[in-house]
User: Which sequence fits this backbone?
């Protein structure tokens, strides 16, 4: 364990333009520890262009887009600090769904209209990437380690935003870690076995907290669900699937 003075000294060396390697050698502190402190301790410039940094914090710009982007971030997103300052928000979107890639980029622009957005091709996916100094302000769930290995909870102001846009939040979660699929089974009808197909929505996430955010929201929307195994949530009831089709729909 390191005290606050030691941690701030290491970060001050990094802010001078020193590499994590050289700071690690000088202080005998691991690079991973310093990198984690950059996330948790590095002050974010308090400027009026960030709604959360104002003297009286405000909801995010375009709260509906924010609720959707929050769902995408909790599923397939990460925030990475840059050595020269600021952060990249990255959302992984499969090449299979070009409409999702466009929707993700539109949401980032709507939430941070003055910051850049780009698309970086990776094998099998596009990393939709937005730069801002204020992503940790807008997504306080950001931290060291994988999301399913640490607690994930919404801040009160995030909860208020999600409460006002429940379906956008669900849509973001499904578009990141969910899918609409067609299952089939067989039934005996008039003495003859026939194939029967039915649609269902699946959501898969290793984080107990993120799955609970999803299922709690479904409960509020009157959508019936089941959890058939440790990580999956299924919506298969006809009326509930119809609701999901109306407000979420398949990825495209």
Assistant:
């Amino acid at each position: 364990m390191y005290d606050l003075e030691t941690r701030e000294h290491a970060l001050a060396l990094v802010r001078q333009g020193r590499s994590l390697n050289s700071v690690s050698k000088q202080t005998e502190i691991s690079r991973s520890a310093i990198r984690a402190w950059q996330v948790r301790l590095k002050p974010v410039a308090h400027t009026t262009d960030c709604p959360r940094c104002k003297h009286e914090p405000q909801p995010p710009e375009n709260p509906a887009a924010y609720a959707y982007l929050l769902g995408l971030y909790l599923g397939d997103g990460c925030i990475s600090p840059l050595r020269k300052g600021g952060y990249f928000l990255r959302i992984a979107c499969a090449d299979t769904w070009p409409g999702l890639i466009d929707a993700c980029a539109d949401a980032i622009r709507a939430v941070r209209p003055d910051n850049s957005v780009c698309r970086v091709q990776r094998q099998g996916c596009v990393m939709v990437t937005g730069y801002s100094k204020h992503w940790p302000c807008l997504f306080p769930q950001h931290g060291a380690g994988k999301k399913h290995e640490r607690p994930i909870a919404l801040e009160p102001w995030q909860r208020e935003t999600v409460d006002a846009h429940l379906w956008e939040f669900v849509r973001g979660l499904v578009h990141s870690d969910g899918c609409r699929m067609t299952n089939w089974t067989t039934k005996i009808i008039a003495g003859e076995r026939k194939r029967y197909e039915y649609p269902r929505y699946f959501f898969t996430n290793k984080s107990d907290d993120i799955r609970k955010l999803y299922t709690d929201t479904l409960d509020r929307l009157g959508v019936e669900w089941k959890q058939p195994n440790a990580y999956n949530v299924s919506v298969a009831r006809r009326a509930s699937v119809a609701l999901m089709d109306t407000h979420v729909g398949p990825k495209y």
